[in-house]
# Entry
Amino acid sequence: MVVKQETKSMTGNDAASYAALFAKPDVIAAYPITPQTTIVENLSRFVDEGKLEAEFIIVESEHSALAACMGAAWSGVRTFTATSSQGLLYMAENVFWTGYGRLPIIMPVVNRCLAPGWNIWPDFQDSMAFRDAGWIQMYTKNNQEVFDTTLQAFKITESKDIALPSMPCLDGFVISHTTGQVDLPDPEDAFEFVGPYDDPVIELDVENPWAYGSMTGPDQYSKHRRDLMVAMDRAKKKIIDVHKEFEEYFGRSYGNGLIEPYGDDEADLTLVTLGTIGDEAHEAIDRLKAEGHSVNALRVRTFRPFPVEDIVEFAKKNHKLVVIDRAVSFGHEGPLRIEVEAILKRHNVDTSVSGKIMGLGGEDVPYSAIMDLVKKELKE
Amino acid sequence: MPVTQKDLMIKPKDALLKGHFACAGCGSALAFRHAIGSVADKAVLVVPASCASVYQGSGKGVAFNVPTINTAFAASDAVASGISRALKKKGKDDLKVIVWGGDGSAADIGIATEIGACDRQENILHVMYSNNVYGNTGGQRSGDTMIGARTATTPKGNTTPRKMVPFIMMANNARYVATASAAFLEDFVEKFQKALSLEGFKFIQIDISCPPNWRADSAHSIEISRLGVQTGIWPLFEWDRETNTAVLSRPGKKYGDKANRKPISDWTSLQGRFRGITNEELIALDEDTERQWNFLRKFM
# Structure
């Protein structure tokens, strides 16, 4: 039975902070950066008002924000922080340390482009730079999905058989600072879904001392990385399972949790997207269909682990994929396009793939621009 | 309670087991064994990139017999903050969170993190063991390198004064700041235990000899450290925020008066890193030493 929920209006950042509040983290570390700041501001207010019993560490840099969460995670408690853009870059070595160290930390990234020049608007260049850091990355399309994904992230990340940090990604401003509708459950119901963190993935123990991250020879090192590869693979099923369980509790779903198709199973052209452009694509698809075009869409919700099988199966039934990327691997293509193209080739799927880079540095991507792209691609 | 030599012989728990990788004559491993051993089953260690991340041993043969978290170079005090807060949340704040790292992290790359933890009054102790050089990368100059020292990146001798890290911590309102020497372990362990009995951010800098990078005979390790105190190069003191007073420690007290000190060349002559040091450099080193004493005297 789906639990009772109340429709509220709030920003995407509010939605992320409510998810954190309901999950009751023990330690939160915070450092301000636009457009993430209001997430940790909300949490500091919750702590001050006594709504959340957490140690709130006001650190002097993002590098220390993640480091403090790492210390807390090693101590066996639930941890949370959030960041954006330059802040994510500044914590870089700890991002990898957390991923490769399998530390269960939840850190929403409010996507913002990278300097120069100074620009606070969204693109995915920041989180894409960390696709190889060993974190689960899920890109959200609206405020509701931010709440839902952040809540799910605790359950996925803190499973002993997964033990991978999570980075729920939300477009800066388009989601983070835009007020939208969010159905909020009662805090008790949300906490019941997440569950207490009473069987920690790791916990330092003076009775039984161990050393973490000491010098490690090639044999053991490569074994650790192979374990991480296998855990990432297991995470796909975990994401699907947690997503299904979430649907039973709260009555909402996003495809199977890994990918979210939109429209007909088969079409002449498929738009492949990440984040809010995926939401905007729905409008474009509806209008294009009304004009008589055969089009559908596939939003990649989970980018790491990459849902290879799901994308391949979807692509098999379709004829032409057009990938919209909001980031660039300079000297090559957009990262999503590169990966989609590669897996189709490997699985001998002859569906054609093309793509366009759009929305860098907050460049507006309205449905009309997506429609123009589709019409141009349909002619080619 | 003063710590006596007899106390040092009692090992409630051997903190440094067989199979560690420390060089012969390493003052840091010696200090580690006595200090960490003295807090028995209560220590939680955080180790930034440093010699300690190497001499703890590797793989399944780690020789540190206490929980040990290795962190990125600049991350240790923030990681320790997270541990300390998590332990507080869990009601386990009887455990002692200790950062054990060298001067590269404490004086240079990690100093912002360290001041951050100090500023927040995190309940941790940072022990900075000083060999005045980036040791395990092969001996490059750090902010803690003395004037005249020949290092891998100052082959003709370092020309700039030392960063005075304990004074920086005093200025940032640490709860307790002290210096120590591997030649006077009773004094060090006493300060170490005192620091751990206080709530807030504590900082101890200990002078340890580094035979390979100082190009010194490992048999002279303790003698060099003792001479460091006796020549005044290494003032031994403790400072408490409550009194804002620096007190010279027993073994180093008389060297506050320059007339009682041995010549600095007694100390430099045992170390290959000072081979070829000029008179001008010796004078500059002496002036920099006096600068530190003068600073300290303002708090006495």
